[in-house]
Write a structure and sequence with these properties.
alpha/beta, D-Maltodextrin-Binding Protein, domain 2, 2 domains, 7-stranded mixed sheet, 3-stranded parallel sheet, 35% helix, 15% strand, binds pentane-1,5-diamine
């Protein structure tokens, strides 16, 4: 299946603005059996129950970990931070999860994460400096960056034709979308999709004015006749299969589908001029993990330079691992849609934990969809 690497684009600018992100530290995670366990370097204490976004790890890396450590990796998948949080809150036990920035902050507050034992993760030294003290988890007490990327639009250029503008209008303006064969696909994700509508209206995606959120909800409602689906899993295939004309989604998944398509030139990935999301996904261990030592060993394995590069060479998402860089394919490192140029970065925001306001994103998104 994945991944082809043939599309050469110039200019690499590596580095990351995390400064504007909210959230903060908090006590927590010290009350379980896992918290009393000391893990040594390379120790395992059972199979790894990995709960991850779909299409987010090279199967060969999973096999390599299993063979190196004599354990099995049991994979389960989720399609949004909120869906993952609900599972963890309902008491389902996993050993390793991959929450985004703001969700790390929320889970720290809710005491759902285990403090990391850094002695078991010496490869943490491989992280690029921008990822060593993020605002959502100062000092990396609970999390380590896995991959980062952007959220934007995959566009079928033939279908959209003269209507192609680098704007969220490509999914939200019915005057445009009514002409798009198959309509458009939007992420089934409260922060991403309400955030996109807020950006379309000129607001921050972290705006906490309820009137603005109601406007964003109404933008989605008005666009609904031409929204084929709210989906966070098949949107990339839907674009290149011709089921929809425009897909809202994550950079790596859309680029992988486009590069693998029969006619890659017929599609493009854009971050709309109104701006979009820059996100950092992180490895973290739930407070009630049954196999915390295997989880630490997996984190250390993924932070190895060559393994980090293998991950990015398969996902087409950017790596937070400085030691990986020499092993990452040049066409990935040099692609400004994977490692955004400074010009693109100006338009990006990181989703912040809005605390008690967070529920409004979920509620208004449900209203928009109903
Ligand atoms: C991978 C999804 C990337 C996660 N399929 C976006 N935070």
């Amino acid at each position: 299946m994945r991944r082809r690497t043939t599309w050469m684009v110039p200019i690499a600018v590596v580095g990351l603005m995390l400064a504007a992100c909210g959230g903060g530290g908090g006590a927590g995670g010290d009350t379980t059996a896992a918290a009393d366990t000391t893990c040594e370097l390379d120790q395992t204490d059972g199979n790894l129950n990995l709960y991850n976004w779909s299409d987010y790890i090279d199967p060969e890396l999973v096999t390599a970990f299993e063979e190196q450590y004599g354990v099995e990796v049991v994979e389960s998948f989720y399609e949004s931070n909120e869906a993952m949080l609900a599972q963890i809150q309902s008491g389902v036990s996993y050993d390793l999860i991959v929450p985004s920035d703001y969700m790390v902050s929320i889970m720290i507050e809710e005491e759902l994460l285990l403090p990391l034992q850094k002695d078991a993760i010496p490869n943490i030294a491989n992280l690029a400096p921008e990822f060593t003290d993020p605002p959502y988890d100062p000092g990396l007490r609970y999390s380590v960056a896995y991959q980062w990327g952007t959220t934007g639009l995959g566009v079928n250029l033939e279908a959209v034709g003269d209507a192609f503008v680098e704007s969220w209008a490509l999914v939200f303006d019915p005057e445009l979308t009514q002409n798009f064969p198959g309509g458009v696909s939007l992420l089934d994700d409260p922060r991403e999709t309400m955030g996109a509508a807020l950006k379309y209206l000129g607001y921050s995606l972290n705006d906490t004015d309820l009137d603005h959120l109601a406007e964003a909800r109404d933008v989605i409602r008005a666009a609904k006749p031409y929204i084929a689906t709210f989906d966070s899993d098949q949107y990339d295939e839907a674009l290149v299969n011709g089921e929809v004309s425009v897909s809202h989604g994550y950079s790596g998944d859309l680029l992988a589908a486009i590069w693998d398509a029969e006619n890659p030139d017929a599609y493009t990935y854009v971050i709309p001029e109104e701006g979009g999301t820059l996100w950092v996904d992180n490895m973290a261990i739930p407070a009630d993990a049954e196999h915390p030592c295997t989880a630490h060993t997996f984190v250390n394995f993924m932070l190895d330079g060559e393994n980090g590069a293998a991950l990015t060479n398969w996902t087409y998402y950017a790596s937070p691992n400085a030691a990986a860089e020499p092993h990452i394919l040049p066409e990935i490192l040099e692609d400004p849609t994977i490692y955004p140029s400074d010009e693109i970065r100006q338009r990006l925001e990181i989703i912040a934990d809005t605390g008690d306001y967070e529920i409004n994103f979920t509620d208004y998104f449900a209203q928009a969809k109903s």
